[in-house]
Amino acid sequence: MNQNYPEFRPWGGMELNQFCMLMHLSQFAGYIVPLIGIVLPIVMWLTNKDQSYIVDQHGKQIVNWMISSFIYGILGLILTCAIIGVPLLIGLAILTIVFPIIGAVKAAEGNFYKYPINIKFIA
Question: pLDDT, tens digit, for every residue of 59-79?
């Protein structure tokens, strides 16, 4: 799926690839303002998903990743009692930085990135 999508230009003429890239990167806003990294990508997705299939697909991937990483984090916290949770939490922390960056780069190129360990809650 390597192409530009000129038929829909969200947010005052922004290119669709740039918008999808920003959706992925908006997850990092939570490092600056708590919870905004959850709210912002969801709002970006919900307000534009009906106008563009590609925005819908990227948004679903992002929301599924946020839910999946939350579940993995809870499992990691539970497993810290068995010591294996600490490496799991460290790995998860790295992946919550790496996956959105890869997704943003792929979106900017016009490609779709499926987060590898994503649980598909929203189809």
Answer: 999 999 999 999 999 999 998
Q: What angle do CA 41, 44, 45 make, to 5 degrees?
A: 85
**DSSP conformation letters of 9-48:** -HHHH--HHHHHHHHHHGGGGGGTSTTHHHHHHHHHHHHH
Long-range contacts of 74-83 (CB under 8 A, 24+ apart): none
- How does pLDDT run across 82-113, given as a tens digit for each residue? 888 889 999 999 999 999 999 999 999 999 99
- 107 in Cβ contact with 45 (< 8 Å): no
Conformational region of residue 12, where left means phi above 0, alpha means psi within -120 to 50, and beta covers everything else: left
Smallest CA-to-CA distance from 56 within 15, 16, 11 is with 16
